[in-house]
Amino acid sequence: MELTMRTPDGKPFRSVKLKKTTDRMSKNMDKGLVQAAILLQGSIKKDFLSGQVLNVRSNRLRSSVTYTNPEGSPGGRFLKVGTNVKYAPIHEYGATIVPKTAKVLRFNIPGVGWRSAHKVIIPPRPFMKPALKDNSDKIVRIIQKSVTKEFI
């Protein structure tokens, strides 16, 4: 099948074979998604996990931020940017820690000593949502450019 694009006065100015075009569009889309994921991954690491939102102690959280392309993902193409570190959601969303069986929590603070509390509130220190918000316009432009590249 062939698609012919015409000027407003009806003159043809570009013809494309749809099968080849859709194949190239798919490849371009994949490249655009990878570029967007790399941009987001870099922003999370550089702008939020290098002392700005969370201080670096072991580099474990920062080095764990990656992107993946789940095989056989339902609904089409997507890339997932995230981390598999168990404590990442606590930093992103915050948490309240309460004792399970005892009446109070007991913990040792180095240089201070033992303390007791009925609960400990860890405030949210998001690093993924703000990175996505800060880069959303760039991500949209990257993906738009990758899709429309075949027609320009």
Task: Write a short abstract of this structure.
This protein is an alpha+beta fold and 152 residues long. Helix content is 41%, strand content 22%.
SSE layout:
Elements: E1 2-6, E2 12-17, H1 18-48, H2 60-64, E3 66-68, E4 80-82, H3 88-93, E5 95-97, E6 105-109, E7 113-117, E8 120-122, H4 129-148
Antiparallel strand pairs: 1-2, 3-4, 5-8, 6-7
Helix pairs in contact: 1-4
User: Sheet with the most strands?
Assistant: 2 strands, antiparallel
The radius of gyration is: 24 Å
C-alpha geometry: elongated
Number of strands: 8
Distance between the termini: 19 Å
What class, by secondary structure content? alpha+beta
Question: Overall pLDDT, averaged?
Answer: 83
Number of domains: 1
- As residue ranges, the low-confidence spans are none
State the helical fraction: 40-55%
The number of helical elements comes to 4
Strand order of the largest sheet: 1-2
User: Strand share of the residues?
Assistant: 15-25%
How would you spell out the order of helices and strands? EEHHEEHEEEEH
Structural account:
With about 150 residues, this protein is an alpha+beta fold. It has one domain. It contains 4 helices and 8 strands. It has helices spanning about 20-50, 60-65, 90-95, 130-150, and strands at about 1-5, 10-15, 65-70, 80, 95, 105-110, 115, 120. The strands form 4 sheets. A two-stranded antiparallel ribbon has the order 1-2. A two-stranded antiparallel sheet has the order 3-4. A hairpin with a 5-residue loop joins strand 1 (about 1-5) and strand 2 (about 10-15). The longest helix is centred in the first third of the chain and has 31 residues, at about 20-50. The two termini are about 20 Å apart.
